[in-house]
Amino acid sequence: MKLHLKIWRQKDKNTQGKLVDYWLEDVNPHMSFLEMLDTLNEKLVLSDEMPVEFDHDCREGICGQCGVMINGLAHGPLKNTTTCQLHLREFKDGETIVIEPFRSKAFPVKKDLKVDRAAFDRIIASGGFVSVNTGQAPEANSIPINHETAESAFDSAACIGCGACVATCKNGSAALFTSAKISHMAKLPQGKEEREHRVLNMVHQMDNEDFGHCSNTEACEVECPQSISVLNIAQMNYEYNRAKVLKK
Amino acid sequence: MNMDAKIPGGPLEEKWSNYKKNAKLVNPANRKKIDVIVVGTGLAGSSIAASLGEMGYNVKSFCFQDSARRAHSVAAQGGVNAAKNYKNDGDSVYRMFVDTLKGGDFRAREANVYRMAECSLNLIDQAVAQGVPFGREYGGYLNNRSFGGVQVSRTFYARGQTGQQLLIGAYQALMRQVHKKTVQLFTRHEMLDLVVIDGKARGIIVRNLDTGEIERHAAHAVVLATGGFGKIYYLSTLAMGCNGSAIWRAHKKGALMASPSWTQIHPTSLPQSGDYQSKLTLMSESLRNDGRIWVPLRENEQREANAIPEEERDYYLERRYPAFGNLAPRDISSRAAKERIDAGFGVGALKNAVYLDFSKAIREQGVAKIKEKYGNLFDMYRKITGIDAYKEPMMISPAAHFSMGGLWVDYELMTTIPGLFALGEANFADHGANRLGANSLLQASVDGYFIAPYTMANYLSGEIHTGKIPTDHPAFDEAEKQVKEQLERFVHSKGTKTVDQYHKTLGKLLYDYCGLSRNESGLQFAIAEIRKLRNEFYENVHIPGTVDTMNAELEKAGRVADYLEIGELMCYDALTRKESCGAHFREEYQTPDGEAMRNDADFQFISAWEWRGKDNEPTLHKEPLVFENVKPIVRSYK
Fold this sequence. Notes:
The complex is a heterodimer.
Chain A: E1 3-9, E2 18-24, H1 33-46, E3 69-70, E4 73-74, E5 96-100, E6 109-111, E7 114-115, H2 118-125, H3 147-157, H4 164-168, H5 175-187, H6 189-192, H7 195-208, H8 219-223, H9 231-245
Parallel strand pairs in A: 1-5
Antiparallel strand pairs in A: 1-2, 3-4, 3-5, 6-7
Chain B: H1 15-22, H2 28-31, E1 35-39, H3 43-55, E2 58-62, E3 80-81, H4 93-103, H5 110-130, E4 155-156, H6 162-179, E5 183-186, E6 189-197, E7 200-208, E8 214-218, E9 221-224, H7 245-252, E10 257-258, E11 263-269, E12 292-296, E13 313-314, H8 316-320, H9 330-345, E14 354-357, H10 359-365, H11 367-385, E15 394-403, E16 406-407, E17 420-422, H12 440-460, H13 474-491, H14 499-513, H15 520-540, H16 552-576, H17 600-603, E18 605-610, E19 619-624
Parallel strand pairs in B: 1-2, 1-9, 2-5, 9-17
Antiparallel strand pairs in B: 3-4, 6-7, 7-8, 10-16, 10-18, 11-15, 12-13, 12-14, 14-15, 18-19
Helix pairs in contact in B: 3-6, 3-12, 4-5, 5-12, 10-11, 14-15, 14-16, 15-16
Keywords (chain B): Cell membrane, Electron transport, FAD, Flavoprotein, Membrane, Oxidoreductase, Transport
Main location (chain B): membrane
GO molecular function (chain B): electron transfer activity; flavin adenine dinucleotide binding; succinate dehydrogenase (quinone) activity
């Protein structure tokens, strides 16, 4: 199949970028989207041009490193799928595809399609953990957790930190990412001891980064590769108010 | 060459306790004076960095990814083993030790393997305390599943994302220490050389991948937790960035490499579909709990899978290995698949796959139960192939997966360079010639959480009077100079082929001649070809751009340059080991019915290789393996 690509090229974070046109003839519809970019890059390298920088690593949808806007959609047209798991069979022969970075004020573009998502790490560092040192843990089965609670905690914990939620949100809010961690921990007995401090610290850190506010459009859940539910945001709000009431 | 494994005395069950009793400590006030560098933020790297930070050491942690959470431990699906015996089915530390030793075809140290099984108990406790949402039964207690190569259920799991959940636990522990400023984290930094001063590991040279800047970092000890190098085959289950460069550059500074040719070829990956392909996606081995593997009885079968009646299917694992059936260990399952595919019974467009069929399990347990156990794997399969595996069998194929080999380490996980430790997949220690499923997450975790914190303290106790290590030592100057020269050389190379083209050629050579099966003439051929390829690479590779900016091609060039040397060493290793054991199958040494023929009389040792310069043959050192508790038997899963 043939494709017309319009790809965001930006030399570095201080330079203005622009969309550049590329044409690919003869790509295989079974190729993954990133393999299509590999093919383009190979051509660029051999004509001594700089290849398109894009984030990727595991290419099996779990590391959370890849992610671009494809025709305006985070991770492209397929629901609940990372960019690396998207294949060209989802596109039409001759189609024009616009590829841009995950834009958000909190995710500055580093080069081409690569963005800086370190703000997510700082949110986790501010409280997204159980304060247990190596060696302190009691016997694993000493605290039973019922099946449904464990499964529900897993649903929240499944976030891969790709940032599609932020890129999709018209406000650039990190509410889905932050709330998924807060809920994961709040649901489990192990996380309950620090419940109040955690939510206050993490929300505070989120507010200190350049993320926008959540206005409940639920667009984030639609694009999330792990189908993280917006109910996590509701839980975060509950946890936050609860912590404030308890004045911890 | 000092190759004392430093195995502590006493009976097997008491060796680790004895070690801990006698190990030297560093008191809390002195820990502040000690700097430690940890390279890699997977399970082993994150857990040792967090643990050392908690104790009060100054830690610097490095990874090439944009966040510590993305290291490739994240991709392990099926689970983590621990001898908790929650199922009351006869499991014990001793049983797990025997299973692991036997699974590795008696090519690992007894004491190391026993310690890993022993520490497995604490790991589950630690992970649960961190909030890892393992699968649970309705009563609230932890659930287990069984995995290849064993007859008990000892595998703990978090759906099909166990690695992700364990890594997030370790990453969160790490970020907690970053927040407390006991750990400084350097993401997007790649280690390009090890600095050795007066025979001790004293620092590293790194490149900031965002800016191209070269930096020097000094410490009293360096930990390499940089994972495996299976990506050398190009097509593999590993992440695109996985590489062998950190351990290889340490090897060239004097650390021995042990058994580099022992690569696990995983039996349940998705088959290759074309030349453009960049990786082979793994489908968790846990699928073999409920999936049955078969090929058509008839050669060159044209019918769809569902149209082939039961009596015309060859469930070859159940046929050849009735005791273990579809749960036969990975090396055996992969070779059995290759045997059927090579004989012309493969399925799929390229005839390079076998079926993994869930119809019986779905009939017996219902779709809902199968969905709960493997839902994400079935979804992934559908996304990649467009096929609904609830309705027709999956197609799977063997793919390069795990490096059992790696830097040689002693019982303390220290390499032959004092002060240089290797943890997790980067070392060779615990899996012998074949790793059992769900033991990799385990090994990486126990190395980092429970073993290295003790063994490193024992070493670091000798460093409390050393003082800061200066980064202006001539050894830093020299290492930095060499790193810069190599980078400059690459960006001035304007040939006609890309780095990936060389990588693919090397990968194909290794897969054909140093993969699932090997023979003498093939290995000799491969060594000659790799040398030619390496020379051509330096003459003809094309690297665009400059060294002082973000440059992905330049990053890859360094890794592939190292692969072109590692590949040759793998072939030497396979060539000199004139026996078949575990993943290493030499065609000359097999039984009449095609099973591996081990040679304990001549090869009951670990091969440890010494670098002798680019154009010289490496030197082989042997660490004899002594079995005091388990008598090596012929491994049979029949």
